[in-house]
Amino acid sequence: MVTLTPAELEEIHAHLHNYMHTEEAQSMKGFCQHGAVSTYDHVMNVVRLSYYLNKRFSLGADMRSIVEGSFHHHFYLYDWHEKSTWHRWHGFSHPSRAWKNARRHFPMGAKEENIIRSHMWPLIPWQIPKSREAVIVCLADKCCSLYETTAR
């Protein structure tokens, strides 16, 4: 999707070192997100695109917040494709579930919380991106979702 240098990938991995190797994060590899893309692969796509947009367009957003917030934006830890009465509301409920799970497992600031909770805007109109970082991740999530759903 985007090409990053080895140094840029190393920076991303440095920010995510305490998160990506946890049992909970690794479990996202077993959940389908879009088509054949796992939830883990989707969040990593969003991480890389968000990083790329911020860096290449000199947007001046906090890179740590972008990387950590985008990694946790789908930290809801279930397969929303499985039949369940509450899964039909997944589009509206998963940002809160992801935020609660991420907050339970990892320390985070207000920017990261808003990134997670607002990434589905405008579908959830009251969860508005309130920072440059949240806007970047919200946009990257839409781009990655579209690509993952339609590209074969």
Describe the protein:
The protein has 152 residues and is mostly helical. It has helices at residues 6-20, 23-27, 39-56, 63-72, 90-105, 110-118, 132-150, and strands at 32-34, 37-38. Strands 1-2 form a two-stranded antiparallel ribbon. Strand 1 (32-34) and strand 2 (37-38) form a beta hairpin. Helix 3 runs antiparallel to helix 4, helix 5 runs antiparallel to helix 6 and helix 6 (110-118) packs parallel to helix 7 (132-150). The longest helix has 19 residues, at 132-150. The relative contact order is 0.16. The model has no long low-confidence stretch (mean pLDDT 89).
In short:
This protein is mainly α and 152 residues long. The chain is built from seven helices and two strands; from the N terminus they run ααββααααα.
Per-chain topology:
Elements (H helix, E strand, L loop, with lengths): L5 H15 L2 H5 L4 E3 L2 E2 H18 L6 H10 L17 H16 L4 H9 L13 H19 L2
Antiparallel strand pairs: 1-2
